[in-house]
Amino acid sequence: MSLLIRNARIVTVQGPGLASGDLLVEGERITGIGEQLQAPETVDREIDAAGRVLMPAFADCHTHACFAGDRLDEWDLKRRGATYLEILESGGGIMSTVRAVRAATPKQLADGVQARLEIMLREGTTTVEVKSGYGLSTEHELKMLRAIADAGSGWAGTVVPTALLGHAIDPEIPDFFEHTISATLDAVHTEFPGIAIDVFCEKGAWPVEESVRLLRRARELGHPVRAHVDQFNSLGMVKEAIELGARSVDHLEASGDEELRLIAGVDAREEQRVRRAELDCTRGGTGVGTIGVGLPMCGLHVDGRYANLRRLIDLGGRAAIATNFNPGSAPSSSMPLAIGLAVRHCGLTPEEAIEAGTSHAAAVLNLPDRGALSPGMRADLVLLRHTDPRMLAYEIGGDPVDAVVCAGRLIRGG
Ligand code: NIG
């Protein structure tokens, strides 16, 4: 299959972009890009973009899109003043979704993920990370990971599963931390070697010491690691995660200058920086150091607090953004909305927000073949309804995507 898109405003982070250019796709890859591109005489499909923006498809690098039930009753509580951590402490929040997930069959879980993935694809997201984390026991974490893999195998885009083994604490499992760090991690390691291991380090969730033990053991077993840090309280996990060579530290709403400097590596001596990047590469990392992931949907839905990604970038750090799609803190899978929020509340320019939701997000997932438009890259593209890329961040709640191409296949529009 070949596809030629003519007269597009080409927006990409590799190179300056083109005010009016053409892009050729053959098979799954981009094979040509340029002004008045010399294309083969016959192509299977040609689209006249008429000046509309052509850009990389979105990569959503942090979601909890495998879940059952909803949290509407808790939303009522929240609107009457209860906080996220109070609801969690009283046995609700993440734990209420844990109960719903445990009661769901593997097929129900996989069907739910699949339905959400189809919506995301229409929204222009072709690469999605999906975490477990609502199982907590070995049996139910494995059930979730299998459901995510099942749903991903039948989807046109790419699903990257992550084992969020440290999400909440189940008081009914004796020695819960020990159980997770040995039995559950071992079982996940056997069935899903190389999968990223994640932890939610927070008051009422996983403490720093246990989070470090979980991630350290995951590293010893050869897994890349990520961590939810500083969502409500800055507990010191940023430093630990970076020392463990984490691919990303996600949330950062409560991070101050000290944490942002650590992520940006400002105070690290040169040899430490090189060592960090090497450690990262050799143990399944991205080779670009730890990336800070902002999740601005939480600010919108939970409490109006946002990560200071402006400061992180000004310090020389790398920022990605994601939807964090989940039934508790972020009930939306819209990357255009996450981009619009990151511009309004995290201090990014529209161009930086696009980069954060495409190439930097792909780097978090260690997928260097996407997130930018150049020959050889995977042809995961969106054609916007707009002719100015800033409209992607400016418009709130519309449907900015006219066409979606995934691995060279036209999925939507034309
Ligand atoms: O990243 N904070 C931890 N995990 C999710 C929320 C999950 C939930 O509330 O169900 C987050 O915001």
Characterise the protein shown here.
The protein contains 16 helices and 16 strands. The longest helix is centred in the first third of the chain and has 17 residues. The protein folds into two domains: 95 residues, Urease, subunit C, domain 1 (Roll), CATH 2.30.40; 307 residues, TIM Barrel (Alpha-Beta Barrel), CATH 3.20.20. The chain starts with a strand and ends with a strand. About 1% of the residues have low confidence. It is of the alpha/beta class. Helix 13 packs across helix 14. Helix 7 links the parallel strand 9 and strand 10. It is globular, with a radius of gyration of 21 Å. Bound molecules: N-(iminomethyl)-L-glutamic acid.
Quick overview:
By secondary structure, the protein is of the alpha/beta class. It has helices spanning 72-79, 84-89, 94-103, 106-122, 138-153, 176-191, 208-220, 237-243, 257-264, 270-282, 296-303, 309-314, 335-345, 350-356, 359-364, 390-394, and strands spanning 2-10, 18-26, 29-34, 45-48, 53-56, 58-60, 125-131, 158-166, 196-200, 225-229, 248-251, 291-294, 319-321, 381-384, 401-406, 409-412. It has 2 domains: 2-56 and 373-412, Urease, subunit C, domain 1, CATH 2.30.40; 58-364, Metal-dependent hydrolases (TIM Barrel).
